[in-house]
């Protein structure tokens, strides 16, 4: 377990890990590959949507006035991967945003920064809206809740309406019409609350394996879904990012 966690946290090579654990690099790799799915299976129970009534009773002060029904703050996380040799996979994983080949995840946290959902990985080409639709977060969202997101997720509103949920995002920006004072204030208010998902992602990035330009190798790509689950669960064991 320690070898596996060191690989995730520090992105050490198997050669270096083998030296520390007095084994061969091939054996260190085998141990890691066998341990990762077991750890993921055990720790994924720490990633869940808490009871909405419990959430409301422990609501952070910043959310109490206008956003007491918010259960999810969503965003996308991208991690650079080794360039695939297959041209089709190169296209599917190319991210225009990152300008490299990436694997992309949807992450959701609660009002206190508790990670309540992490999707499986998709090619970096996928849009935020399609990512939201393809992963199974809609099956897990409590009904009639609020979902906070940035403008990149504006087209998920019809998906949420079917679930009787509300999308909370900054007002749309137009090059023709100047935003009103109330729209400016609303944008600032939402941005000040959405920053919490960025702080959660920042904690994920503390794991060297999950840094933006970690360049995950082909051999480790199949383990990445399990690794991000492990990291998310460990983050949920840390102190909340928001004072309640």
TrEMBL record:
User: What GO molecular functions are on record for this protein?
Assistant: metal ion binding
Q: Is Metal-binding included in the keywords of this UniProt record?
A: yes
Q: Where is the DDE Tnp4 domain?
A: 74-236
Superkingdom of this entry's organism? Eukaryota
What's in the keyword line of the UniProt record? Answer: Metal-binding
Obligatory cofactor(s): a divalent metal cation
Pfam families documented for this protein:
DDE_Tnp_4
Is Metal-binding one of the keywords UniProt gives this record? Answer: yes
Q: Which PANTHER family match?
A: SPINDLE AND KINETOCHORE ASSOCIATED COMPLEX SUBUNIT 3, THAP DOMAIN PROTEIN
- Identify this protein by name: DDE Tnp4 domain-containing protein
């Amino acid at each position: 377990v320690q070898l596996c966690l060191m690989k995730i946290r520090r992105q050490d090579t198997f050669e270096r890990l083998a030296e520390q654990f007095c084994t061969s690099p091939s054996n260190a790799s085998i141990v890691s590959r066998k341990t990762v799915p077991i750890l993921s299976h055990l720790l994924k129970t720490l990633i869940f949507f808490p009871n909405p009534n419990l959430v409301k009773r422990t609501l952070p002060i910043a959310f109490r006035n206008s956003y007491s029904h918010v259960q999810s703050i969503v965003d996308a996380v991208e991690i650079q991967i080794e360039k695939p040799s297959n041209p089709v996979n190169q296209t599917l994983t190319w991210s225009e945003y990152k300008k490299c080949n990436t694997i992309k995840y949807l992450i959701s946290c609660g009002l206190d920064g508790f990670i309540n959902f992490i999707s499986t990985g998709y090619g970096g080409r996928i849009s935020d809206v399609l990512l939201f639709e393809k992963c199974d977060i809609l099956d897990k969202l409590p009904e009639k809740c609020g979902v906070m997101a940035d403008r990149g997720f504006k087209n998920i509103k019809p998906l949420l309406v079917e679930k009787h949920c509300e999308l909370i995002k900054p007002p749309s920006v137009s090059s023709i019409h100047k935003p009103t004072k109330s729209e400016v204030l609303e944008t600032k208010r939402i941005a000040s609350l959405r920053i919490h998902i960025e702080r959660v992602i920042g904690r994920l990035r503390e794991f060297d394996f999950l840094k933006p330009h970690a360049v995950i190798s082909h051999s480790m790509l199949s383990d990445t879904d399990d690794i991000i689950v492990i990291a998310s669960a460990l983050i949920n064991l840390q102190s909340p990012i928001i004072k309640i």
